[in-house]
Amino acid sequence: MSKDFLGEFEELVLTMVGILQEEAYGNAIVAEIKQRIGREVNLSAVHVTLYRLEDKGYVKSNMGGATNSRGGRRKRMFQVTNAGIAMLQSMKEARTDLWKLVPQLKIVGSGL
Amino acid sequence: MTAKDPQLVRWTIGFLRWFCPDTLVEGIEGDLLESYDDDRLAHGQKIASTRLVWNTLKFFRLSILLRNKKIVYRNNHLAMLKSYLKLTLRNISRSKGYSFINIFGLSLGIACCLLTTNYMLFEFSFDNYHPNIDRTYRVDQTLFWSPDGGTFGSTGPVLSSVLANDYPEVEEVMRINTPGDFVVRYTEENGNVSAFNETYIFAADSNFFNFFKFDLKEGDQSTALKGFNKVVISDKIAQKLFGKEPALGKIIQLGNDRKPVEITGVTEKQPENSHFQFNYLVSMPTNPNVKKFEWSWIWTQVVTYVRLKPGADPQALEDKLAKLGETTIKPFFQSMGMNWDEFMRSKQPWKFFMMPMKDIHLKSTDNRLGTVGDVRYAYAFGAIGFFVLVIAAINFVNLSTARGTKRAREVGVKKALGALRSSLVSQFQAESIFLALLSMLLAIPLMEILRIVIVSIMKNDLPFSLWSDPMFLIALPVIAIVVGFLAGLYPSFYLTSFLPVQVLKGKVATGMGNSVLRNTLVVIQFTISIAMLIGTVIVVQQMNFIRHKNLGYEKENTLVINFAEKLGDHIMPFRDEVAKMPGVIGAAVAMDVPRGQTYEDFYTAEGTTIKLPVTVVKIDDHYFNAMGFELIAGRIHDTEHNAADKDGYIANETTVKLFGWTPEEALGKVIVYPGDDFSKAHIIGVMKDFHFTSLRRSINPMVFSSTESESWGDMRVVAIKYKTNDLPQLVESIEKKWNATVEQTPMSFSFLEDDLAQNYKEDQRLGDLFSIFAALSIVIAMIGLAGLVAYSAEVRKKEIGIRKVLGASRGTIIMMMNSSYVKLIALGLLISTPLGWYAMDNWLNTFEFKIDISPMVFVFSGLAVMAVALLSVAYLSMRAASVNPASVLKEE
Predict the structure, then answer these.
(1) For tag attachment on chain B, is the N or C end more exposed, with fewer CB atoms within 10 Å?
(2) How confident is the model at residue B781 (pLDDT cuts 50, 70, 90)?
(3) Chain B residue closest to A44 (CA)?
């Protein structure tokens, strides 16, 4: 099914939600992506992706408790659903299977 | 978010709340504010705000907007909006011609408006970024050099210490001095010397950077101007002198005495919207003159800036400073042996004024360090842009209502099926706003094209960029929506007022009330475009008048060698050599040529108590005849044969008249400079008045003295009259001669006519901009007119057919088609005549010498607009008139 397909960025964001556990919300994900893989992503892109993942049922969200920072606005916290975990797992497996089919690759010019 | 957050942040968040679905808004808003707070701590307020705006704008995307539908769909709003959009697109494609006129005309109008608004914003942005600008003032004082009064922005050096010591409300004082232009030399390591004639060289107190935000690329602001022989240079000069090498610490030589000066700073690119830019800024002690005149009130060669303590009242300080004349300056005069009462007789009282620094560019008349703008011009451009937009919006309204008949059936059917009037109104509003947004999109590239055209015509940069200001990006769609809403207001109410029964029966309401409004709007359009044309014609006439006015001498074919004092003793031999060159009619040495500078000082005459501010210019024996001045009595200097002529004056008529003499009486009278004994000279000749300053000013007293005189003034120019077909060759040979005379000093020359044109640069610019925008406004009005005529030709198709059957000729039909709006244009001319006359008379009054406004201007403008109108609808009315009656009448 086409719905079962995740784009590269969707997968990245979904993984980050998994990594961050209880602390997964927009800004934290932006910061985590920057810290882990050095990629600058825009907040709006992350939000839109999160909502799309929610539509597809891979994450669910609820509003966190009120805070004094962020002008008193609550955070929208995201958690990976079971479907999300299954999706990540199947993608990883599919990739490993494919990788195994590639003949021994060497980077040209890397010596022995 | 707290109350002290800037307006921008609140607006941005408001914008987010407006478009963002309620379910999502809290999470998004929180995230945005969180990163805004982080940015503010890490990068400061400005960057944080900019990022916030950008980040918020990026949320304005379909995948967020469409999430609204879950909530909104219940009310059908989004569905309706979609259907409005579809209807709009259908309407556009059904009548491509009208839609093109509508959209293109409006976007042209918006483009003009954006451009002029941008220009206006730029003019108003001058100096607004300097620290504590609201407490910073330039100290102006009464223009005591002139009996006419007025104020000027220069003071003596002593004022700064008086302010700092005696007035507790003063926080800090800083002076900038203008030592003049220098030759700057740089000796490279390999011994090569490069030399340049440099301008915009200033000297400043060491706290300069506390007042002005000129960022340094190299060097330290706090120490750069401390001590002797330091200089901060601009990025451009650093590039010119050293290329890519670092400039810091290098030594350059200033002036003829080759004073070595260390470079202690290089600025970043200096902001265009500052009331001055400098090439070189030396530390104050580097100019020994400032020290020499430290105590002086009348050595007015510095600009004094002052910062008051928070809460201090500038008016109160001005009142206190008004007493300085009696308490401090009078004793100063006495200590100098000068008579205060004598000096101040028949003059305005000596007062000081606090000119807010942010107003220097637009509201002051004098700026020692650079140029000033004119607030009236800034508003004038803004108004022009606004009027062009009005013309375009009127097209929009007119075409929509005119086409109402076409839409009447649609409205009738909808109403019959139960549509509420309110929903029809919102349909037409949505359509109009949508078209305006479309025009806005088109307007942006149009504006850039327009800007390129204007820049290339004016040969003058319009130094601003739309995109640097996030406010502007928010403003764009808002402007479009407002324009669309206002322009759609009348059409939407008019179109929805049709009664379904009538329109469905085929009776289309073409009521009189409607055409009255349409005609009124057309008259407004033509009033504006004719008024702008009148303005253009008058500005162009005045500029021509200035260019061709007989100034009292021959300004044509005059080459001026500037900084001729660098020739030293060789100046006279140089003059004689040049005079012998082929193509040279005459060469002469003088203090200056008449191009705007005045060198006034107070003189009196023996046997009278009258004192006059007289400009004294030293000239050699050849100058008078070479420049073509006119003598009316006596003779000119002839120091070669008559040594006594060195103390002779040639006075102009005004001087003689003000001293109360006839030209013949004046000969032999002795004019005295109260300051020293050298300048006692007798009048040997009287010349006809000529214009030695801008035509904005009246002719003041001036005399020519002799180069041989011992009085003040050095020889700064060699004026060369030429008559040659090969000017470059002539310049080259003069330059060769120059280089053979002085080493390592570049020659600098100009043409007198170009120098004179500099005095009227702003006016020239006004004229150019006026003509461009007048042309655009006429084009837009014509587009609209063509649309209306095309429309009326269509509506009156049958009428025309019947008239032709009954024997009307093509000529009569064309007359009929044209007569209606010819009347409207005539009415427009009638209204615009007094308006244009009033505005332009005001402008002309800024000139002392000006043209009279001729009634022909109005006749010409009216006829020109009429002719363009007739031409632009000629094809349409021809086509309407040549239609075959059979083909239009068979339909019924």
Answers:
(1) C
(2) confident
(3) B59
